[in-house]
Amino acid sequence: MTSARGRWVCDRTGSTRLFALFGIAVVDGSVASMSQIDIDATREAGSSEVQVVLVAKASSGGAQTVRATVQAGEVWTHQFDATGLIALVPAETSWVVVSDDSGWSASSQSLARLGGLGLTAVWVEASEAQTLVPRLIWLQPDGSFTDGAATFPHAIVVAGSTAVTVAVDPVANRLWCVGSVGCGGRLSGRVIVGSGTIVSPGLAMEATVLGILPPGGHDPQLTLKVPGAQWASTPIPGDGRIVFLVSARDTVLASETWGVGDIIEKIVYLDANGKKVTVTP
Predict the structure, then answer these.
(1) Which of 21, 48, 163, 185 would be 72's cystine partner, CB 3.0–4.6 Å?
(2) Model-level pTM?
(3) Is the pLDDT of residue 135 over 50?
């Protein structure tokens, strides 16, 4: 028999920042408002079924026990109340998001991998009462993205020492990213889709900008403002669109901020008809 256990200590009214260590996730918050969810999952040798027991303990002293049989390869969810549910996805992963407009949200910090069972538990929450089951997308061990029904086109783009993995979700028409820049907005024709900055202790600003050309767009050329900045582009196999990544680093004052226009002077590419297009951030 293979078994695994994860534990949540959840503050439903305070911070939702979690730390996952050895299958245990603990949320910051005051003791008075905490609730706890224990997850026990076991699988008999040779079986494709996982037996799951959830025990939720409210701060008021009440408890709820849920028992279920989860089939291999399936997403399983249980909604505890109007604004919180637990989901099990069939992979040991460090990245899960909600990719729909159901009102739910999931943080990749709120995960507990159930080692040896090929499962990850994730806490999904909402600010208002919800009735729809969220559509989840996760990163698989081989680097691909899936919602359990299909695998999405994805690529890794590298500029200098910065790498970002991107995937096109054709169902929701979104671009998802894993790396030093976040994204997840709808693909609306906007070229710049994500950016991020980090200030190191030595006051060195590291900035990353991610973009995607419209369908049929090709041959991008970027003019950058920051000395030493690097950029690279790559097509997304199975989708055809081209993504580009800019990585820049400079020494700045702590009060300074970098916008995309401070890093990129212009983006030039050819559209599907071969016409030259210039974008200035």
Answers:
(1) 48
(2) 0.80
(3) yes
